[in-house]
């Protein structure tokens, strides 16, 4: 019976959530994708640099 009460509470709380509108969602999605791409390129460059340094010494 606790599981039923849990899902009722979840349903009640989900109705209170303020979901983003279409334009906000697009903006947030572009921001997230840009950030992920930037971080991926940044770490790829760092990895390449460390690999090159290790190849010089070993």
From TrEMBL:
Transmembrane annotation, as ranges: 25-46
GO BP annotation list: intracellular protein transmembrane transport; protein secretion; protein targeting; protein transport by the Sec complex
GO MF term list: protein transmembrane transporter activity
GO cellular component, one term: plasma membrane
Keyword terms of this UniProt record: Cell membrane, Membrane, Protein transport, Translocation, Transmembrane, Transmembrane helix, Transport
Claim: Transport is one of the keywords in the record: yes
InterPro entries in the record: SecE_bac, SecE_sf, Translocase_SecE/Sec61-g
Location of the protein in the cell: Cell membrane; Membrane
Coiled-coil intervals, chain numbering: none
Alphabetical list of PANTHER family matching this protein: PROTEIN TRANSLOCASE SUBUNIT SECE
HAMAP family reported for this sequence: SecE (MF_00422)
Subunit structure: Component of the Sec protein translocase complex. Heterotrimer consisting of SecY, SecE and SecG subunits. The heterotrimers can form oligomers, although 1 heterotrimer is thought to be able to translocate proteins. Interacts with the ribosome. Interacts with SecDF, and other proteins may be involved. Interacts with SecA.
Function statement: Essential subunit of the Sec protein translocation channel SecYEG. Clamps together the 2 halves of SecY. May contact the channel plug during translocation.
Record protein name field: Protein translocase subunit SecE
Annotated organism of origin: Lentibacillus kapialis
Lineage: Bacteria, Bacillati, Bacillota, Bacilli, Bacillales
The gene coding this protein: secE
């Amino acid at each position: 019976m606790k599981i039923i009460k849990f899902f009722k509470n979840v349903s009640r709380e989900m109705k209170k959530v303020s979901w983003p509108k279409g334009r906000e969602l697009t903006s947030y999605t572009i921001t997230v994708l840009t950030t992920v791409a930037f971080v991926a390129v940044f770490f790829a460059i760092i990895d390449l640099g460390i690999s090159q340094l290790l190849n010089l010494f070993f």
